[in-house]
From TrEMBL, chains A, B, C:
Family matches, as InterPro entries: Cytosol_ACT, HOTDOG_ACOT, HotDog_dom_sf, Thioestr_dom
Gene Ontology terms for molecular function: carboxylic ester hydrolase activity; long-chain fatty acyl-CoA hydrolase activity
GO terms for biological process, alphabetical: acyl-CoA metabolic process; fatty acid catabolic process
Domain of life: Eukaryota
The keyword Hydrolase appears for this protein: yes
Organism: Cottoperca gobio
Coiled coil, from the record: none
Protein name per Swiss-Prot or TrEMBL: palmitoyl-CoA hydrolase
Keyword terms: Cytoplasm, Hydrolase, Lipid metabolism, Repeat, Serine esterase
GO cellular component: cytosol
Signal peptide start-end: none
Domain HotDog ACOT-type: 6-124, 180-294
Length: 336, 336, 336
């Protein structure tokens, strides 16, 4: 990995601090996601402004499914490398790699790999989408692969709509290990530090809040040290602007022998607009695992299902779980 | 250049930043409360360690009712002056004054005055309360007045217990301007920065979270720029330690023509303790007012009462409101 | 309780938190530099606005060489005292002292002494430099000494230009203990919290980032606990404004038996401006030492020189090292 050369790649690094981690010293997945998005936003915005015309900002619209390969610890230096890997007429793909370096031993490990999609919005008129200057590909094959990824995500984004379900409600005195017992919500008033140059919340800030709630749900369910194992593809349906109150709610949908799937919903509403329109901005599934003192996975208590819709969500989660397992095995075989 | 004068007084100052304020530029009351408590904790801890014996930490047990006299703005410098004004065998009173200075015009205004009670806890054994070294009073009259304040708060602390009500619940689709409509909750995972020395949350951190929730409740009710006008006496019933999840919930109890009273409850529970014992750590009443563009008070929409217990809480709030009004008038007359 | 005395002096204090320190508990030098600059900016801005006329802001243009005399630890209270010690027609000198107080034992130590030069810029037109109201000196001798310091720094500021070297580049797979091995970069998107009044980054924020990168370089070279020992005089050539991306790069220039000299370059460029003009905003030399568990200095691995220009920079660093050694000895003798 080399130092920032071209406008289309970038490297960030930062020491992980106590506030970035839980009490055991594991850096929160949300902190990693936030760094990844900051790098993506810089490299994307910089690229979209290399041409003449209105100034614009790269706006996150989608993060592909991402896996946390190794836990990162306090005192380690996280190196985030971002590179533009595909451009369509109105969107661009940034691939990001996170290496964690123990500066005392020199050991390095690959902590995360992610792919993000951005759309450039004019600074004059946020609803106007601008053209993306094309990049040059090292080979026709790389371009072809990029186009396939582009088509695949486009189709998925059209299919997936924000889940516009009712407010999550829970029984007053839930029993331990039920869905209602661990369900958690937080509200956050969007402040200046959460926002881009525009007055819109960085996608990374939203992901950090989502990871925080998911982590509390997971810890309440199993009362152990928990870490983010993966995040499903996330689509950002609506921009959230300054002065909004964001409500982030998480609930368990599925529990396997050693993992928990948590659905997280993000709703936003303006504090000062009288009409008080509340909208579903983002939704995603986070998977957490429980670790013992030596960072080995622990068993997770089973989930007590009480209602019909909980069973339906459990079955859907189980299907996702099995699908991912099949994919992982296929990937392994291909690599052999 | 001189070093901190006496061990029993202290001055802190800091420029107010964008992140300390709402979008209109008014610094959040919670930021002021947090600075006040930091000053109190330093001066109290320093005083209790001037003698030989076990090292100890001043632990906040009570804040007297405090009024926000003037709003503070971004870019102003807040000067917080703290002084020990009374000591009993096991507790001490710190009086704190906050001046806001506009460094461009030189204008200064008194933004806040507060009184806090601390109890020294041994660093070896947090449950052991230590002796407080006595201070010297400038006059017998000052000592007498301090003793009266001490007796008064002692009696109140014995009387007030944490309100051990059930979890606040709200109807699924509440109508605007009802109690359920604006009720809000946040959860916060206690991190290292919340607890400096010891492994217990600073009282100031808790007050900041309480103010944040109360502010969201108030803004949801009237959709305007709102600021903290006052906080009732707060008793800290239980210490909250690192690794806890704190749930802070606020709901409207009373609305007058130009003010809103919000009850805020703080519950804490350990994330990693299997028994998952939840406890009510703090409860208090915050009063907010709504301001127009020139910082003049606006009318507040009336509160729609739907349930019997809401009416009961409204009447109690009204009684507190009238009591405060009488007190304020009496104070004014005394000063004339 | 009294309000800030004279307009020309100020005291700030704050408890050091876990996030201010490295994993061993040593507070980062960058945190101290940031507090020093905040105090200087307040006292300077306040002073320049005591007269009628346009309101203005004190803008940091230079920090004199500063030494870190004692490490500061988490839980200690840092007292920063700032005083205006000289005024010329268009600039003023602020001398700052940092005392670290252990509030449990009452022990105090002098952690740092620094001198900063500010120039007042009009709030209406940032490029307009304002007049500085003169201060009164306690003696003609003090004024004379101040004038000498003023003339000396003026000459140096004219001599030193920002080092306009090419971007630092490094070999792809560097060997351990070479310059390329430990070279590090970080990128920071300037946010609202970095710029309080005006839309320009506080000098203290930049110094904190520089110290962070230098610390990473030093730790990578010797894989031990490292702390800032001193910072060379820093000249701030250009203002950095909101919306800029700042790239901070550090590389080893010289290593003695027990110290490492790291050159840090700060480049800034606008994210959205098409011309993408990158400019060198600041450059400086940081010296770090390596500490064992008892905070005693350790030996540092020698630096493997690979290129001609590395040797040239090493020799220049060696000359600075020897010069400082001579100065320190001369100071000692003078004090005896």
């Amino acid at each position: 990995m080399s130092v920032p050369q071209a406008a289309s790649s970038l490297q960030i690094c930062r020491i992980m601090r106590p506030d970035d981690a839980n009490i055991v010293g594991n850096v929160h997945g949300g902190i990693i996601l936030k760094m990844i998005e900051e790098a993506g936003c810089i490299v994307g915005t910089r690229h979209c402004n290399i041409q003449n015309g209105d100034r614009c900002l790269a706006n996150l619209v989608r993060v592909e499914k991402t896996e946390f390969l190794f836990p990162v610890f306090i005192g380690e230096v996280a190196h985030v490398t971002a590179e533009i890997t595909y451009t369509s007429k109105h969107s661009l793909e940034v691939q990001v790699k996170v290496m964690a370096e123990n500066i005392l031993t020199g050991a390095k490990k690959l902590a995360n790999k992610a792919a993000l999609w951005y759309v450039p919005c004019s600074l004059k008129n946020v609803d106007e989408i601008m053209d993306v200057p094309p990049i040059k590909y090292a080979s026709a094959e790389l371009e072809e692969q990029g186009r396939n990824r582009y088509e695949a995500q486009k189709m998925e984004r059209v299919e997936t709509k924000a889940r516009i379900e009712e407010v999550m409600s829970s029984p007053p005195n839930p029993e331990q290990h039920t869905v209602g017992f661990s369900q958690s919500s937080l509200i956050h008033l969007v402040g200046p530090s959460d926002c881009t140059l525009h007055h819109y919340v960085h996608g990374g800030v939203t992901m950090k809040l989502m990871d925080e709630v998911a982590g509390i749900v997971a810890a309440r369910h199993c009362n152990t040290n928990i870490v983010t194992a993966s995040v499903d593809a996330i689509n950002f349906h609506r921009k959230i602007n300054k002065g909004c109150v964001v409500t982030v709610t998480g609930r368990l949908t599925f529990v396997s022998n050693k993992s928990m799937e948590i659905e997280v919903l993000v709703d936003a509403s303006s504090l000062v607009e009288a009409k008080e329109e509340k909208f579903r901005a983002v939704s995603a599934f986070f998977t957490f695992i429980s670790l013992d003192k030596d960072n080995k996975p622990l068993s997770v208590p089973p989930l007590k299902i009480e209602k019909e819709e909980e069973q339906r969500r459990f079955d859907e989660g189980n299907a996702r779980y099995l699908q991912n397992k099949v994919k992982r095995l296929a990937n392994k075989e291909r690599q052999q």
